[in-house]
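To fix ideas, we quote verbatim one protein's residues and fold tokens.
>
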Amino acid sequence: MKRILKMLVLLLLASGMSLVSARNALAVQGGGRDVASKDRDQSRTLTGTVVDKEENPLSGSVVYLKNTKTLAVKSFIADDSGGFRFTALSPNADYEVYAEFNGQRSSTKTLSSFDSRPSVQLQLKIDVKK
């Protein structure tokens, strides 16, 4: 994709066409929407709950989400019902998600780019030691 964009810029510069008019031309070809808006339209949302082995919510758990392509990590502190939410996730990336509570950790689950659902729900269980 980057190679195509680079070639397009070179062609535009050679033809004397401005980048603004080229972007507008691409938007018209795409049905009036540019590529960035298409990515936003196709973004995914990951929601879920963090619970103990008896399925009681673990409020205050920290949920970690790692993009396996960029290695960027996001975190979310679970609400009173153990809920968490990550929005605007790329449909073209795989993600690993796990939760921690009082030094204990859930198993790691994967959200695959092959999973085309726009909204995915997971339950992360932590075996809390008392």
About this structure: The beta strands are 44-52, 62-67, 73-77, 83-89, 95-101, 104-105, 109-111, 119-126. The first helix runs from residue 2 to 15. The chain is about 25% helix and 35% strand. Residues 59 and 79 are 5 Å apart (CA to CA).
